[in-house]
Amino acid sequence: MSDPYQNNYYHQGRGGDAYGTYGEGGGHDGYGYQVDYPAQEEDAASDVTEGHDEEDQMYEGEYQGIPHPDEQKAAQRAARTKSRGAASAASELQELSEQYEDIMEDCGHGKFQWTLFMVLGLALMADGVECFVVAFVLPSAEKDLCLSNAEKGMLGLVVFLSMMVGAFLWGGLADKLGRRKCLIVALAINCVFAFLSSFAQGYGFFLFFRLLSGIGIGGTVPIVYTYFSEFLQKDKRGEHLSWLCMFWMMGGIYASFTAWGIIPRYGWGFSMGTEFQFHSWRVFVLVAALPAIASLVGLTFMPESPRFLLENAKHDEAWMILKQVHDTNWRAKGQPEKVFTVTHIKAPKTAEDEFIEIQAATGTPVQRWAVRSLTLCKLVLKNVASLVSAELRYATLFMAIIWFCMAFSYYGLSVWFPDMIKHLQYEEYDSKVKVFHKERVENFHFNFSLENQVHKEGEYIRDKFINIELISVKFEDSLFEDCRFEDIRSTDTTFENCTIRSTVFYNTDLWEERFIDCKMENTTFELNKRGCHLDALEENDVLIYLVSFLGSLAVLPGNIISALFMDKIGRVRIIGGSMLISAGCTFLLFLSFTQSAIIALQCLFYGVSVAAWNGIEVVTVELYPSSKRATAFGVLNALCKLAAVLGSSIFASFVGITKAIPILLSFAALVGGGLVALRLPDTREKVLL
Fold first, then answer.
1. 477: left (phi > 0), else alpha (psi -120 to 50), else beta?
2. Is 431 helix (H, G, I), strand (E, B) or coil?
3. Most confidently predicted of 27-31, 292-296, 317-321, 491-495
4. pLDDT of residue 532
5. Residues whose CB falls within 8 Å of the CB of residue 27, separated by 6 or more in sequence, listed in order
6. Of 128, 354, 582, 631, which sits with the fewest C-beta atoms within 10 Å of its C-beta?
7. CA-based Rg of the chain, rounded to a whole angstrom?
8. pLDDT at residue 10 is higher than 60
9. Closest by CA position to 580, among listed 679, 662, 668, 646
10. If DSSP codes are grouped into helix, strand and coil, which group holds residue 348?
11. Which spans does this entry mark as compositional bias, Gly residues (predicted)?
12. Are 85 and 29 in contact (CB under 8 A)?
């Protein structure tokens, strides 16, 4: 039986063997090209100069005996071709990988990749925004939706849990149904349910819609990196995947900036009676979905990954897309005369495809759908199980440890930083509390707000509290007689062990839960505000946006440095070095006694750790073959979200108790992950399998 990869490529003007020589020669066993095929552009790592024709220019190293980059690349191709012919035991997968790399080099790097870069970058930006949305709206939503502490905790938890499910689900499906198709569906789910969540008036519906929104956006990270990597040639891969990581940072900046500009504007909303309220934080939820919507629109104009199509025996579609990439790039560079010389690509048909077709050809439509779905689930689970096969188990184990350690410390500290700032603010606020003991006030009209006060054993006779705010006010063991409370707005205000006689509460938000062990005598409540009401912004809430904005912005230098040196230093050294340096930064947290010190150390930690994240994502793409790449990325990203849940929960529980345990936990995780990262193989020169 003939090799299914024999004669995979046929070129114009060639009728010989499948692999013709590179260059002008009459091709013996090499990869055949037209004799007049123009010289390829071999630009620097980030060169996207368009419209520059260098055919008539003299290469400056010609007289110095320095090989021209075209000659070096041709020699590399010839070496790959020779190895394919000499190694009779070479796998079909390796042959396809090397052939695909040759074609991507011919297509060049230009307009097509940069267009796809922007579209996928917006999808990655949407993932970054999703991580911040609930944290930003929670201070307002907890008042608007009357959330308890348990409900607030569940809302924060469901973000990462839903993204964990989405990463696993869409990563597995992307290897079987296609990168583009799954990314479009995932983003569409995110957009639809993010839109619905902004209108949800109850906690249950809001939680449900955010859950489904998170499942949708959870698929972006594993698919985006897999999708983009399959349009990159080897010498561009590390750098440009690192540039792509910058969009996650931009998502944090976008979320912080828009939240800062929208949420405090309480006039940006409307209401329909008392049952439907649309406050400014709901406007922010809508605005936060714009990157996902923009990416979804852009994806409709992008093609499927040709590498995925080749893996699934759709060679004609793959050829059309590769020709589109080639022609788009060379036309943009002012060289439309360059011809895509590959005329046919042949790929073997897999047994899995045949199985689906045979099973789907029988029965009723419902039965066919059931068979397709069941078969698809089995194939996805089989792909997941293959990640721990003999050839991949060590790579999967090492990457799982690295992903978990990095996520545990990063997300744990991401929660710890703002919680520590809030704790310091609370301590400072609590230290300024005013205590009034045994005061007696008669016939007095309180027309000014009361804030941060404690009144003990006071007596208030025939007093009026009209149109004021009570903020963090506590009345203990006090007497209210013949008093009137009217148009009162309160926050953290309670009455404990008080006696209230002949007193009227008119149009207030003071309900039974505010009166703890109080004795009511001839007291009436009229037109009290039902539910919870969003009246004013606490001053400390604004700092949430500022801290997140500065933390996201601090990532920029680390992103730039890691992108520029990803191919020069190597992925392994960047991951290991960055994690170990980040571990050292955590010890500086013992010196953080002020809000400004914590913010500065947060920026330092984020700026250093982002290089490790970039390296981890690049290595994850390069370690796994195309048929398992998105699945592996999805599983590891799901593990990342699980570590995020554990880290944030554990670290938050020690706020206000001790700093030592969170610091030591993050230090141990980063050191352990960094040492394991140094054992990874160097994948800089590896052709994507």
1. left
2. helix
3. 292-296
4. 59
5. 14, 16, 17, 20, 21, 33
6. 354
7. 31
8. no
9. 668
10. coil
11. 13-30
12. yes
